[in-house]
User: What shape does this take?
Amino acid sequence: MEPTAAAALREARARLGGHGRDARLDASRLLEAASGRDRAWLLAHAGDTLDRHDFERFTGYVARRERGEPVAYILGECGFYGRSFEITRDVLVPRPESEHLIELALRRLREAAARGPRVCDVGTGSGALAVTLCCELPSLEADGIDLSPAALAVADRNARRHALGARIAFRIGDALNGLAAGRLFDGILANLPYVPTAELQDHPDPTAFEPRVALDGGPDGLDAYRRLLERAPHHLVPGGWLLMEAGPGTASALADLAGRAFPASAFVEIHRDYAARERIVAVRG
Assistant: This one.
C-alpha cells in the first residue's frame, strides 16, 4: 500500500540527509512535481494516501537526488529572480549568487533606459541573465553568446517562454570573438567558467552533473576571462559597465586583470555575495 503524503516526505527527507533545510525543500519540491499538487494542497492533505503512479514517480525523483543530481535537472526547470526557466543537462543551474549580477546591472542600466540600452550576456547558458534583464527593463535589448549550440537552444526557448524572442539575439561564440568592431553595449555581463581545474568535483557532488565546459576555468580559473578582457574594452560605450561573476578565490586576481585590460581611467570594484564572499568584479569603462 502506498504511504500518505506526510509519510513519503518523512522517508524522503531521511534519505536526502535528515531534517536539514535543503532536504526538506528538495523533498517537498519533488513531491509537488511528482503529484502535480502545490505545497498548500499537500499540507492540507498530508494524511491522504498517495496515488500509486505519483508515489513511483516521486521515489524515482528521490533516488536521483540521493545520487547527487540537482533538483533542477530532475524537474527540468529552475526558479531565478522570481521567474521559471527551462534547465537541461546542457546548461548550468542558475545560482542565487548570480542574482547579484542582475541587481548591479539594473542599477546601472536604468540610467540609460530612456534611450533603449543594449547588453551582452557572455556565456549565456540558459539565458537566465539576458531574459531576466529584458523582463525587468522593457526598453532593453540583448545579445546572448555561448560556445554551446545546445545551451543556446535552451536559452532561445527560455526567451520565447517569456515572450522575448524578438528582443534577444543569441549567437555562438567564444567570449566576444567574432563580434563586429562597431557592436557596442551599455553593459556586458559574464558568468564564465571560473573553477580552477584542480578544484572540479566528482560525483556525487551536484556540480559534477553540470557541463564541464561551463565550469572549468583552467589552472587558475581565469582562462575564459582573459579572452573576454582582450575585447571587452572595445565593445562598451563610454561609461558602460562590465560585470563579471567569479569564484571567491579568484575575484581579486580577476580585478587585477581587469585593471590592466582597461584604460587607466576605468573604475574597478569588487562586490560581495549574500555570504559576504568576493563574487562580482565590476568595471566602468
